[in-house]
Amino acid sequence: MKETADREIQRVAVIGTGLMGHGIAQAFAVKGYSVNLLSRRNESLRKAVQEIRWSLNKFVEKGRISSDEAEAALSRIATTTSYKEAAADIDLAVECVSENIDLKKVVFSKIDEIAPSHAIIATNTSTLSVTEVGKATGRPEKTAGMHWFIPPQLTGLIEVIKGKDTSSETINAIMDVSRKLGKTPILCKKDARGFIVSRILVAVFNEAFWTLIRGEASMKEIDASAKYIGGFPMGWFELVDFVGIDLEYEVSKILHEAHGERFQPCLELTEPLVEEKKLGQKIGRGFYDWSKGRPCIPSELAGKYDIERCWAVAVNEAAWMIMEDVAEQESIDVGMKLGTGWPSGPCEYADKKGLDMILDQLEAAYSQHKTELYKPCPLLQDYVKKRWRGKKTGKGFYTYT
Ligand SMILES: NC(=O)c1ccc[n+]([C@@H]2O[C@H](COP(=O)([O-])OP(=O)(O)OC[C@H]3O[C@@H](n4cnc5c(N)ncnc54)[C@H](O)[C@@H]3O)[C@@H](O)[C@H]2O)c1
To answer: Which of 254, 316, 333, 382 has its CA 20 to 30 A from that of 201?
Structure first.
């Protein structure tokens, strides 16, 4: 039997039909893949197909695909409640069930029992160990993380995560299929919590939260500075509301446990909101009132918070990732731009600004506040010492000729 690397992925199983599952099934079907979509209940499958149909119609209305292409995509999706039907003849399974390690292990082992030996099993987990989920199978080398962004049928980024046992053939196959889906894959070389994009985002959220708690700036001053000076698509509080305060709360605790005091979460701010069920946009109330739509953040408030400190924290976290061999600078930059719409990646920003300036910013904040969040990464210190200070010296995170 041929190994996965020599085979083209053609048939895919998507397990789970929630927010992510149906969008992922659609993304594969639109690009010509045959998809078996599995859920526990027929009712969920009917709802998922309805949602896919609605989304495909939007694609047609916007001229992205023709109505014939939409019909063809829909016809490529077979729905089932049986693992035997879903996984018997596939090259790749993408698991998208709820974020629970025991549940994901059960799903992985069920697919493993049925899927052909060459098939890859990928998890869309945001926070769990890809390695641990992979161990639930007899083919850990053919398991990996394939982390999509919401909404999966539209966003251009996929984080591909190498678990401890994942083979390079498996990584190559997932990178390759991601490109064929029209996405840009970035490689997370280690199974490190938060992978790439969430890890940098949570560091920046913590910076915004602690700044508010210390009374240095108001929520709207921070958000106005992020939007109107930083050029970020949303203010940080606005973005946390948008993704869900409950989600941020859970992820921030996981990152704290995994990466230590640098990720000290600001629970005094988020916990009461979670307890009061003020979870953000989905509820209509979080940091902001969303009952009448997107919150108003006046541009006059911009400038009262120094946005350079967010950049410094983001650059510092990028340096940690590079030092720990979790990701390359290009992957980090592409991830932040495609995954969250940042105007620049942190590494390219640092090179433009000057790594010495970033380091100064961190050292000043560290000596003032004495919190690990600002403690400069040794890699950044080393670069500055070596005069790798960015574009002005011809070398920083990147080399300039
Ligand atoms: N929502 C996001 O923004 C986002 C982004 C990237 C990754 N993820 C990850 O994707 C995964 C799914 O997230 P979601 O937002 O789609 O969740 P969701 O709650 O919308 O959907 C979860 C799905 O899992 C199904 N499920 C639960 N138990 C099951 C079982 N025993 N067998 C089969 N299906 C079962 C549910 O019926 C539901 O369809 C999670 O691991 C999450 O961390 C989510």
So the answer is: 382
